[in-house]
Amino acid sequence: MDLGAPHGIRFRFEAGLLRAVLLDVHGKAPVDAGEELTAEAGARDLLVEETRDGHVRAVLRQRFDLPAPARWRLAVAAPATATADGVSFALPDAVTLLVSGSAPCEVEDGGVVVRLPAGRSDLDVTVISEPVFPVGDTVVVCRPDQVREAAVVVSCLPADRVTPVVALRPPDSSSHRHDRLLTSLLAATGVRRAVFLADPGDAGPDADVVPDLPERLHLPCEDPVGLTAKAWEVLRGGEPERTLDVAPDADFVAALFTALRTGAALRVDDGAPPVPFDEHDPDDGDEAVLVERTGGVDDLVAAVYAHHRGARLVITPEPDLAEVRAVVAEEQERVTAAAGAIGDAVKGIGFVEALWRYLSSGGHDPYAAVEAVVTAQVPAEAVDRVGDRRLTAFTTGLPYSFVHTGDVSWARKPIGHVVADPTLVVLTELHRAGVAREPGAFSVVVDAGAFREAPETTASLGHHTHPIVLSRQDASPRVLRDLVADLPVELVFFNCHDADDAIALGDDTLPDDDLPVTLRHRPIVFNNSCRSWTRLGREFVRAGARGYIGTLWTIPPNLAAGFARTVVRRLTAEETPAARAIVNTGTPGGIERSYLYVGTVNGRLDEWRDRSTTDAEAALTGCELLAAAARDRADPLAPVLHRELTALREVAETGEVTDSPSYADVLLAELELEDDDERAAVLVERVDAVLTGLDLPDDELEARWATRFELTGARFERRGEYGAALADFERCVGLGDACRDRADVLLRMARLLMREGRTDEAGQAARLAYDDHRARRDGPGRLESITVLADLGDPDPDTALRYAVEGHDLAEELGDRARQAAFALAECDRRRERGESAEAIEAGSRAVELFRALGDDRQELAALRRLGACHRDRGDLETAQHYAAVGLARAEQVGAAAEVASFHDDLGGVLTARGEHGPALGHYRHAVSKLVATGAWERGAELLPHLAVGAVRARDPEALWTAALSGGLICEVAPREVWASVLPLVVDSMKRAIETGPLELTQRGMTDFASAVTAGRREDMPFQVGLLADVVVVLLAWLMDRVDAHIRAFARELDRTSGGVLDLVGYVSVPYADRARDPGPGRSRTTSGGPR
Predict the structure, then answer these.
(1) Distance CA 126, CA 425 (A)
(2) pLDDT value of residue 347
(3) Where are any strands of DSSP class E within 133-192?
(4) Distance between CA atoms of 170 and 206, rounded to whole angstroms?
(5) Are 68 and 38 in contact (CB under 8 A)?
(6) CATH number of the domain to which 844 belongs
(7) How far is Cα 1023 from Cα 415, in angstroms, rounded to an integer?
(8) Are residues 675 and 579 in the same domain?
(9) Which InterPro entries match (predicted)?
């Protein structure tokens, strides 16, 4: 029996006792560990916990409950050391084993002994495995032309490890990606020292070459003869035991390879004999490395890699690619023309055969021209030296799979082409071979539909990868970027169209240069779009790809999909190296010959060394990875993750995993992403059933219940079922520390309680959230809490001001300018309430500037109004008028009608305070008219009294009629709570207008009011409009001196209906001629001295 994750460290038991620790997580040999236990009865629980942080750490936790003392022993064939924690064993290959527990651990010859007491005791076996990389601790940095110097220095470093060589070059469009990835790989593989053979400034002023290494040395190279002794002394100390003399003009690629093979240091000597390269170039083995002699230091990487692989090294002249490119371009035109001539009538394999026949018309090999021009660039001796071996070609861009002589064809030879950045390619391969594989794997397929048409189902051999197919609607650079960053993506396949210098992704593109994506998990990229295979291969390697499969010419998507299905199966399920996976595929018509692999011939996906993982277990692991990546329902990636999560969850349900905590977690993750209410209800039922049946410690189980209630509460809230939402949030918070986002849930509760008017409870929840955020030093969360508390308001002025000031300062610290401005405005209000005019003005000025910088016109206008009010409070009417005028101009500029009205009202208030009632009335009239014209009834009702009072002060009966008419229009359409306060003001304005204005104006005013407000049939009118119509009837009768008993009774009824506020009976009891200042001709006043 094995305990532990299949992708991690596993503990192997036989007959109930530990016998070995399996370390194939890093490709290391097992550790023999012989466990002995004298106990014959009692309980023993086993649990494995694993963590990863560069290294892999697994803990075998044993819990004993024994009736009598027992002796436990573990035999480990390694030196033991007693530590404060227990007993530690230092094992080969960077592996540490530690035994610790509640009872003392004692070192014993060949192992460790623990004397377990009767009753309960704990014992842990902790194994830590560090990745081991065959990379030296030094990188050599030099100019591209310093081949001789670099070869000498590399030969002075240990030959059993790969020494990276980096050339200083001027920056190009994506060199920053190269440098960033190189720096990361050097640090990850243990490189700690950089030796510069040239000034780093040679790469240009903006170059940032290996900036983070702890040790940087500069090694002058003016004396090539003495360089060996100097380099050895600096790098290793002392003198080399063995040297290989080489002439200054020797082939230093061959020389370095020979030196590494013989363990000698290169020494430049004018009289040196030829390098004995052929004597030491391996003749056995099945791998060859070919390098084109370009005269640059990149050639040395090929020699180092060939030595590392124990491969034959073949050195050839640099090819002339001009004619090769021309012939390839012609072949592209032929393939495109042939595909167009065949058309859409022929599908699938038939299309392949038809295309092949078309290209082969006349019985000729359709690729003969390409083969001829490529073969002409490769010497026959090189072809012979490579032989039948698989090949890594360090090349400037020659497609070596088209080498074809009379006796030899490389068409089906596994060939990896290293076309650029060789150190990056080699380090990526070595790093991935050394690190632990991820618990699961995904492939991303960007496809227009062809890949889905005929899916190829094959029985998995233990390597599980889940394909995520992105349609045109799903695909975008952002979605791709997020997928490869958040998920362990091992393969990316582009089966889509070209755009200009880019790969089409949905409605967007992925540019050829400086790819805006980081391939964190080092996938192999498979691209069917017809782009430059050398340039795009380089760009994807710089983005993080371990290899790139590209085409020489465009292949129709349906053909590419068929070929890709075969290649993907071979790469994943069969774990075939990529260069081998793209040949001998059985694809009819030689379609595979269009494809080339950029990378070494050994490039492959991570191996799944343990093959025990079932489909259901792999699916559940995939679900957990998808769930971890699904951070936000609103994220563009969320629909894709949700779709794949559901698909994998259904696969997981076919196995025996549905009673596990992980399955419950997957259901919760899916519930968080689900938008459909019916499907969500089904998920909730499953979650409840699984959680009810789980046998877990209380804290682990309650955490899952808390998540369940948080999710269902959020769902109720989105649906507007606020009572149910509040109930579930209260259940979540009621579980205490088990609630993962307690402070956030408390804030949501506070907002819901505010909605229900339960402000005291809302304040309590918000204060608890604030305290939680403050304790966790969660600045953004604390800002949210303060925002809610500020919205609630606090009856204590000091507390309200403290929230405003703290919110402003915290928002400024977090760079949240919008909230900083809002809190500055709140501080202005709070200080104004406290009578702190100067401080209020300072805060208000700050708010104006912040809102202006944000481009928030409406809030800037609100802040200007507050500033004006502050100056008015302190008696500075001139400044208050200035701010009102500035605000009015700004409001008119931005077309803010409501604010225009408000500033007119403010100007009216300032002018009234200055005693300028006439000009003030003009502003009041503008304010109300603007609001009524734009349908802002409630705000119009607020400002209407200012107009009415201003008209009285200015003794302007026409303005009173404007107030009455505006108020009547408001009453006609406004809700009851608005018109109930306006209607008495309308009647009062009419009465005052009649008293103070001439008869002609009164008649016109009554006519305008009746036609605008009370026209129509009485029975069709709303109550309040009918009431005004009745008032008009009474007033008209009074104006015509026709107040009889019937009219007086009608007026009495209206007074009763309105609660007496209209006082119509008292008003009409005095004749019009006696009330009006100007009753008109023929209307004499009475002479009695009775009261008026």
Answers:
(1) 35
(2) 54
(3) 138-142, 165-167
(4) 9
(5) no
(6) 1.25.40
(7) 91
(8) no
(9) TPR-like_helical_dom_sf (IPR011990)
Ordered strands of the 595-598 beta sheet: 312-317, 287-293, 390-394, 415-418, 595-598, 547-551, 524-527, 489-495, 442-447, 466-470
Contacts of 199 (CB under 8 A, 6+ apart): none
Per-residue model confidence as pLDDT tens digits over 914-944: 999 999 999 999 999 999 999 999 999 999 9
Cβ atoms of residues 576 and 549 within 8 Å: no
Give me the number of domains the chain comprises: 5
- Listed residues 101, 129, 157: the one ending a domain: 129
Task: List Cα–Cα distances, 645 to 573, 623, 634, 851, in angstroms.
Answer: 21, 5, 16, 43
Question: Residue 570's domain is classified under what CATH number?
Answer: 3.40.50.1460
Band (pLDDT 50/70/90 cuts) for residue 588 is: low
Q: 1081 exposed, middle or buried (CB, 10 Å; 0-12, 13-18, 19+)?
A: exposed
Is residue 512 in some structural domain?
yes
Residue 983 lies in a domain: no
Distance CA 649, CA 646 (A): 5
Which of 290, 316, 342 is a domain's end point?
316
> How confident is the prediction for the chain on average, in pLDDT?
89
At residue 416, φ and ψ (nearest 5 deg) are: -105, 130
Say how far apart CA 266 and CA 209 lie, in whole Å.
26
> What span, in angstroms and rounded, lies between the C-alpha atoms of 905 and 441?
67
> Residue 135 carries which DSSP code?
B
Query: Do β-strands 43-53 and 95-101 pair in parallel, antiparallel, or remain unpaired?
Result: unpaired
Find, among 295, 601, 564, 580, the residue nearest to 454 by Cα: 564
Rounded distance, CA 306 to CA 941, Å?
Answer: 88
What is the residue whose two structure tokens read 């809700």?
Answer: 975
With b for 16 or more beta-carbon neighbours within 10 A and e for fewer, the 193-207 pattern comes to bbbbbbebebbeeeb
Domain match, 11 and 101 both: yes
What is the reported pLDDT for 43? 63
Strands 87-91 and 138-142: unpaired
Tokens 């082939």 -> residue: 251
Residues 220 and 81 in one domain: no
Closest C-alpha among 215, 176, 223 to residue 196: 215
Measured in residues, the chain has a length of: 1092
Q: 381-422: per-residue pLDDT in tens?
A: 999 999 999 999 999 999 999 999 989 999 999 999 999 999
Q: Residue 500: which pLDDT band, with cuts at 50, 70 and 90?
A: low
Q: Is 960 helix (H, G, I), strand (E, B) or coil?
A: helix
- Specify whether the backbone of 855 is left (phi greater than 0), alpha (psi in -120 to 50) or beta: left
Adjacent-strand bridge partners of 105: 114
Q: State how far the alpha carbon of 770 is from the alpha carbons of 225, 750, 776, in Å.
A: 72, 11, 10
Domain that holds residue 195: 138-316
29 and 63 inside one domain:
yes
Query: Is position 800 within any domain?
Result: yes
Name the strand (E) or helix (H) holding 113: strand 111-116
pLDDT (tens digit, 9 = 90+) per residue, 839-860? Answer: 999 999 999 999 999 999 999 9
Rounded to the nearest 10 degrees, the angle between the axes of helix 917-933 and helix 897-913 is 160
Write b or e for each residue in 881-897: b if 16 or more Cβ atoms lie within 10 A of its Cβ, otherwise e.
bebbebbbebbeeeebe
H-helix or E-strand spanning residue 810: helix 797-814
Are 709 and 853 part of one and the same domain? Answer: no
**pTM for this structure?**
0.77
- Report how far residue 111's alpha carbon sits from residue 90's, in angstroms, rounded to the nearest whole number: 12
Q: What angle do CA 399, 405, 410 make, to 5 degrees?
A: 45
In-domain check, residue 305: yes
Report the share of the chain in percent with pLDDT over 70. Answer: 91
